[in-house]
Design brief:
Rossmann fold, 8-stranded mixed sheet, 7-stranded mixed sheet, 15 strands, about 35% helix, binds nicotinamide-adenine-dinucleotide
């Protein structure tokens, strides 16, 4: 198969859909890999590394799209890319079609086979191509929180881990899923006092087993949340109700009880945020604002700041499916793997994923 790797054009998007290692694996399997010039530059992968791995560098984006049978990307195509696709071409990327009717329309009219990272399923309905970014964001949440707790960044001047004779800071994490567990790992590693609040008793049991006495696990209800938010030096929002807007679990009044110079990192901002005072999306260039003396961080694409790590983490998860699609052709690959079949969102001019069809108000 001829595979094309497009350079991302979204503002501040430095990730790339395939690394030199992935290029080598696909070439060794007998495929041709076309890499758009400087596609990996933002993640620290130079054209030369792709060339050495067997890839062909192309500076003509249009020609790359015309030749490729499968396009590998990271983010959904932008309007200037819509015209580049052709009938029967496979697009393998994060698609997020539900809020993007114009993109859906373009892919339907071009009869593209759109395979979305975000809906490919692993065992137990897990989402294996979303998890790597949650791992990155969870770990970053504590790193970022630690920085903004420093005085020069407006924080209260507290070191997360404390030192002998001085107590460690209190980290409170609401939502103990992938983001929450990874945030806890970092916070525990730095020596902070860590509390995880979740509504799932099963999940709390798991976290208690993993972390033992290094974390306090607490059942989620407004009484417990109010009690722990008051004590938090760093509050991390990490809840998810799949397919729904994040519930507002921390009220304005609760935030008012936090000490001046405390920090909130609401990772769940991409689903609307779980904290009432988190009322806007911030950016990497202006990541914070202050309310009630508390620093608020609500960047919706946190992994973008660590593009190299994120590219490696993402492609670790995407490459195996890319190989299956390329080796077998998409039809056989989805027949052999029902989880991969869940990734097919558009096909032959039709929407093939139920919730996307519902969001777009079209037939499924
Ligand atoms: P997950 O499904 O693994 O975990 C969510 C957890 O929230 C679950 O354990 C669930 O039991 C818990 N939860 C649900 N309702 C709750 C409630 N009322 N009280 C307490 N806990 C509750 O999800 P995840 O992968 O950890 O993702 C968490 C959020 O982070 C999602 O919104 C995701 O989109 C977001 N995210 C954001 C970024 C970013 O850059 N900002 C990056 C990655 C993920």
């Amino acid at each position: 198969m001829i595979i094309g790797v497009a350079k991302e054009i979204k503002n501040n998007e430095n990730r790339v859909g395939l690394t030199p290692a992935g290029t080598e694996a696909l070439c060794k399997a007998g495929h041709t890999v076309l890499i758009e010039k400087n596609a990996g530059g933002g993640s620290g992968f130079q054209d030369e590394s792709y060339r050495k791995a067997g890839g062909l560098i192309m500076s003509d984006k249009k020609a790359l799209f015309a030749e490729a049978e499968m396009i590998i990307k990271v983010k959904e195509p932008l309007p200037e890319e819509y015209e580049l696709f052709h009938e029967g071409q496979i697009l393998y990327t994060y698609l997020h079609l539900a809020p993007e009717p114009a993109l859906a329309k373009a892919l339907l009219s071009k009869k593209v086979v759109g395979i979305a990272y975000e809906t490919i399923e692993g065992p137990n309905h897990s989402l294996p191509l979303l998890s790597p970014m949650s791992e990155v964001a969870g770990r970053m949440a504590v790193q970022i929180g630690a920085q903004f707790l420093e005085k020069p960044y407006g924080g209260k001047g507290v070191l997360l881990g404390g030192v002998p004779g001085v107590e460690a800071a209190q980290v409170v994490i609401i939502g103990g899923g992938i983001v929450g567990a990874n945030a806890a790992k970092m916070a525990v590693g730095l020596g902070a006092r860590v509390t995880i609040i979740d509504r799932s008793l099963e999940r709390l049991r798991y976290l208690a087993d993993i972390f033992g006495s290094r974390v306090v696990t607490v059942m989620s209800n407004s009484y417990n949340i109010a009690n722990w938010v008051r004590k938090a030096d760093l509050l991390v929002g990490a809840v998810l109700i799949p397919g729904a807007k994040a519930p507002k679990l921390v009220s304005r009044e609760m935030v008012e009880t936090m000490e001046v110079g405390s920090v909130i990192v609401d990772v769940a901002i991409d689903q609307g945020g779980s904290i009432e005072t988190v009322d806007r999306i911030t950016t990497h260039s202006e990541p914070t604002y202050t309310q009630y003396g508390v620093i608020h961080y609500s960047v919706a694409n946190m992994p973008g700041a660590v593009a190299r790590t994120s590219t490696l983490a993402l492609t670790n998860a995407t490459l195996d499916y890319a190989l299956q699609i390329a080796n077998k052709g998409w039809k056989q690959a989805v027949l052999d793997h029902p989880g991969l079949a869940k990734g097919v969102n558009v096909l032959d001019g039709k929407v093939t994923y139920q919730s996307v069809a519902a969001a777009l108000n079209t037939v499924y």
